[in-house]
Design goal:
This protein is of the alpha+beta class and 361 residues long. It is 33% helix and 24% strand. The protein has helices at 12-15, 28-33, 102-110, 128-131, 141-179, 192-195, 282-290, 306-310, 319-356, and strands at 9-11, 16-18, 38-42, 45-50, 55-56, 59-63, 77-80, 83-86, 90-95, 135-137, 188-191, 196-201, 220-223, 232-236, 245-251, 253-260, 265-266, 271-275, 313-316. A 4-stranded antiparallel sheet has the order 2-9-6-7. The longest helix is centred in the middle third of the chain and has 39 residues, at 141-179. The chain starts with 8 loop residues before the first strand and ends in a 5-residue tail after the last helix.
Length: 361
């Protein structure tokens, strides 16, 4: 058996034919006029539909420019099959039969560390001449098929997991609207300003008590407006908010709510709501803000203001009812959290199977 570790690697140009000369780029304006039944692909997968096709076979697309080069989570290679159109932002690869499996090459290239082969700084590009030199450790066809079968199972599990995450989101939204709908219920409506101990917006970042990274001295997070972790600005030693609270992004990205239990420092007009625990549950307030439909007052930059926020009315059942509603909504959120953790494990499994396949068995 021919070794396929470092010594058994083959160049991509030996394993595939590049069909780049058959690609047909068109402007976005023209494509919008030609919407049809055939998928249209670019550097990052399918980007739309078109009324004609160029290719009609099993192929692999590899990003040429505009791809997610260097990302560990977003692929740079895609598998396509059947009638399709490809623009000039992706290399089109036809795998040579009898040498390699199309799915094997696809999996090999999905998260390939392409940095040694790319050019450019502001807009990176993988030229055809460089792509041809990409080294692919190549086991015999039979082992390629076995590796593909293993990876197919992991990918199927990933798809199922992602579908369940989407369904859990849909269930949460449906349950949220249902549980917080005051119709037919003897609930009082109160303004946010009436159910909060404090309601204010963050100011400027501290100038002298600040660090971009967490240190022994500066460990209190500074939060600005942002989504999914992009709200972390840096760290300070000043605890401006010490009570459990809700923050709502109020500039640029507006209306994104986060429940915060640890001390922090808000900046850039990030709105902070500290609930009056005698009349409203912290989690109930959080879910209520998730149910808001915000309208911004900005022109060039969308933004919310304190007067807008403090006058919003929310349905306010008794604390006992609030806790019952929170329990239902939290159960769905906890289920989703478990699915997200499973997504990470499946990605690690995919990487492990792919990594082990780089060496002889």
């Amino acid at each position: 058996m021919r070794p396929y570790g470092a010594g058994g690697a083959r160049k991509l140009g030996e394993l595939v034919d590049f069909l780049d000369n058959q690609r047909k780029p068109i402007s976005d304006e023209e494509r919008q006029k030609r919407i049809g039944p055939y998928p249209y692909y670019g550097a990052n997968g399918q980007v739309g539909w078109i009324d004609d096709f160029i290719f009609d076979e099993d192929l692999v697309l590899l990003a040429e420019d505009g791809g997610y080069f260097g990302s560990k989570d977003r692929p740079i290679a895609y598998r396509i099959s059947g009638k399709s159109w490809v623009n000039n932002h992706a290399h089109v690869l036809r795998v040579k039969r009898g040498i390699a499996e199309t799915d094997f090459i696809h999996y090999r290239l999905m998260f390939y560390d392409i940095k040694p082969y790319i050019t450019g700084s502001t807009r990176t590009k993988l030229n055809k001449s460089a792509a041809e030199k990409i080294k692919i450790p190549l086991p015999p066809l039979e082992i390629q098929k076995q590796i593909v079968e293993r990876l197919d199972k992991v990918v199927a599990a990933q798809k199922l997991n992602d579908d369940l995450i989407q369904k859990s989101d849909e269930l949460f939204q449906s349950l949220l609207h249902k549980e917080l709908n005051p119709a037919g219920k003897d609930w009082e409506a109160k303004k946010l300003g009436e159910v909060c101990e404090e309601l204010f917006a963050g100011g400027d970042a501290p100038k002298n008590n600040f660090s971009k990274i967490k240190t022994e001295k500066y460990f209190i997070p500074i939060f600005a407006n942002g989504i999914e972790g992009k709200d972390l600005y840096g760290y300070t030693d000043i605890k401006k908010v010490t009570k459990p609270s809700i923050t709502i992004s109020a500039r640029g990205t507006i209306g994104y709510s986060v429940l915060r239990k640890e001390a922090f420092y808000p900046i850039v007009r990030l709105i902070v709501l500290i609930p009056n625990s005698k009349i409203i549950d912290l989690y109930f307030l959080y879910y209520a803000t998730c149910n808001f439909k915000f309208f911004n007052t900005g022109t060039s930059i969308p933004q919310l203001t304190i007067p807008m926020i403090e006058n919003i009315k929310i349905p306010l059942p008794l604390l006992e009812i609030q806790e019952q509603i929170v329990a239902k909504l939290s159960a769905v959120q906890e289920y989703k959290t478990g699915l997200i953790a499973q997504r990470k494990k499946l990605k690690e499994l995919f990487d492990s199977v792919l990594s082990k396949s780089m060496h002889n068995k």
